Amino acid sequence: MNCLKLKPHSFVRGIVGLATLTVGQCSALRAQSTVRPTMTMSSPHQPETEMQAVLDQHAQLGGKPIPTLTPVEARKQPSPADAVKALLKSRGQSTEPEKVGDLDNRSIAGPAGKIKIRVYTPQGDGPFPVILYFHGGGFVFADLDTYDSSPRALANAAQAVVVSSHYRQGPEHKFPAAHDDAFAAYQWTLAHTAEIKGDARRIAVAGESAGGNLATSVCIRARDLGVPLPVHQLLVYPVTDSKTDTPSYVENAEAKPLNKPLMEWFFKYAAEPGDATNPKLAVLRTPDFAGLPPATIITAQIDPLRSEGEAYAKKLQAAGVPVVYRNYDGVTHEFFGMGAVLPQAKEAVAFAAEQLRKAFLPPAPKRGQFSPPKF
Fold first, then answer.
1. Catalytic residue of the set 58, 135, 166, 333
2. Computed from CA positions of residues 249, 250, 253, 257, in that sequence, does the dihedral angle turn out positive or negative?
3. Is residue 209 annotated as part of the catalytic site, yes or no?
4. Where are the domains of the chain?
5. Sorting pLDDT into bands at 50, 70 and 90, what band is 362?
6. Of 156, 160, 181, 370, which one's alpha carbon is 20 to 30 angstroms from that of 72?
7. Which CATH architecture fits 2-50+101-360?
8. Residue 33 appears among annotated catalytic residues
9. d(CA 239, CA 70)
């Protein structure tokens, strides 16, 4: 795992040049992991043992190569989440989801109809901070059920209400449909925190993969429209550009479960050709990053999106936005929600929750400002 802390206004000489390496945490995590001597993917990096077990189980589920399918067919294929459940079952372990205090399925008004959301509430009375979470799936497939484990884990680890929001998907609804729905979900969250035991002053956004793209696009749109900003953005292996020639794309062109052909397939159905470089979709091309919320960015070593996650961290940092970035070695895209089997996923969730809890703290009093004691 590469553990990097990016601080505003430091001299930029590559991602490592701007970082502080937390050696103890990296060493501790590596000590938990072992590496298989062989691999089943075209990549210079080797998956950690449990990661390889998930990949092997996913292959055994018999899914077809998604780039050869239509979106309708692709939506029927087994997901990495299915592989985790199958692996647990094969080991005689429980497949029950992590428990939360309460779970509520709802529908909210969107720009083109109802948007499905799922509200995860931790144990307690609140008011809690709130995390608006967007799932992955390349803007084409997956839903609230596919990405159920991450919101549960974040709700408990961050002690926050998590609002997991669905959104319209391509090719039926191409860009900017998903982005419009995501911003509508953010506006709903701002206006309805009280009814979900939330605190309107402490709202963060989060997302995985395509959901990471939606989360940071919400921040950019809120800034540009003068809407109250989230206090933090958690971006887990986010899609930030449409380029497919970065170092991590070259290294992981045939990786599993995400690779270059699949990303090109996603963009084919998620956006019109002329939209692929639109800064509202390819957020790495945004002209100005100043004034955006502090960010936590997490990437995976065996993932074509790793380089653009790093690049987005650099862009934010160069604009004076506080950023903490970590890359996890030996794991692939989708690892974050695999805490039931992967130590790295548990560590990543704990790390993300720590950053969120810090962001949810009230601001420190300014020098000379009196803070009366509370009784």
1. 333
2. negative
3. yes
4. 2-50+101-360
5. confident
6. 181
7. 3-Layer(aba) Sandwich (3.40)
8. no
9. 21
